[in-house]
Design goal:
alpha+beta, 2 helices
Length: about 90
């Protein structure tokens, strides 16, 4: 599961091989042992949880980078390495 971004202690990973579980483009966000899976198109949590303030940061980042995330998803499902995406603290 490649890490595509890091900001404010949050790791953003794209794990496309679980497409059977999450059929739409999604990311995994990790912060201090907590993990949440977010839908890219809607920015909503599909599973797991993060602290409230980190959740809001991830949702804002998804909204800002939605086009980049969809492009990375398309690369990943075709077997290519997704590109890094800038975090909010860069």
């Amino acid at each position: 599961m490649p890490t595509i971004s890091m900001f404010y202690g949050i790791l953003i990973k794209m794990f496309f091989q679980d497409i059977e579980k999450h059929h739409s483009p999604h990311i995994h966000a990790e912060f201090q042992g907590d993990v949440a899976v977010y839908s890219v198109p809607e920015g909503e949590i599909l599973s797991g949880s993060l602290p409230h303030n980190k959740n809001k940061i991830v949702q804002a980042w998804i909204e800002i980078h939605k086009d980049d995330l969809i492009a990375d998803w398309e690369l990943a499902v075709s077997g290519k390495k997704p590109f890094p995406i800038k975090g909010l603290d860069q």
